[in-house]
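Hi there, hope your week has been kind to you so far. It would help a lot if you went through both lines with me. No rush at all, and the record is pasted right below:

***
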Amino acid sequence: MTKRTYRTAAIGASLLATVAIAAPTAIGQSDSIPADHTIDVLVLYTGAAEESEGGEEEIHEAIDSGLEGMSKALDRSDIEGKVDLAHAEKIDFEETDDQGDAMTWARERDEVADLREEHEADLVSVVVSGTAGIAQSPIPDETTSDSAFSVVGSDWLRSDDETGEAGVFAHELGHNLGASHDWDTDPGRNEERPYNKGHITENGLVDIMAYNNASSCEPDCERVPYYSNPDIEVEGEKFGADDGDRPSNLKKLFDETIPVVAAYR
């Protein structure tokens, strides 16, 4: 069983596990997603990331796999939206031990801003070698297009339907869309959209945004490649919460924020 560590600048690190699931039966809607629900991503990758994947062709394949994994997760979660590659390019950036340095570099470089405009990219993600990731996490509106950056580790780019792994893009770009973690891991409440949370089921399944070692997991939960949605069931369990003190409904959130982010550029 694979364990992965996702982190954001605000939360810190955690381990997550995946669970094998059947291949999705309803994948395919992404081909008909309208432009106002299509998010275009500029992906920049370091030489170290390219080397770790085995070369230029391999890093591009991994990027494509990761973006496809997120689009499939949106699809199987009954969320109208997809992510497309606007452009991928190798950058001259010397990696450090802090992924935040790569994010700062990307945010401050004029050439990155120029590439974003040239390719009309809504989001910008930097791929570095290694694992984990960080992302900015606004509640998107017409003023947040500058909060559109993430950094992801190349080791976790690829999605895998057989193991239920959606890939690190699905988690970190989820933050760019306004998603938080689960209530146990991140109890802070967004009063405007308190439902912007990942979900943990009673039987110990977690969605893409939740942490598998949250306090309600005994000892670890298992992740499935869905976003929280109380209108669907996963392995026989309702996969979200509409009401109460701890709502979790990323379908509702993404229905609101995907069109906003898709209009950044």
